[in-house]
Amino acid sequence: MPRSDWNIVKNYEVHLPSIEEQTAIATILSDMNSEISMLETKLAKARQIKQGMMQELLTGRIRLI
Asked: 0.85 exceeded by the pTM?
């Protein structure tokens, strides 16, 4: 990088979490990703059901009392 003083940057310490903590974080993120995928699937199914119900109502096959 043209604006960095590499003599300062090379001495900068970066603290990383332990392997156990990294694994725990990865597990939580993976679980959250799975739940998001499941919720997206449920949402898509609910939208399909809504579309089908609207079609039934609009064509007159089903009437509301």
From this structure: no
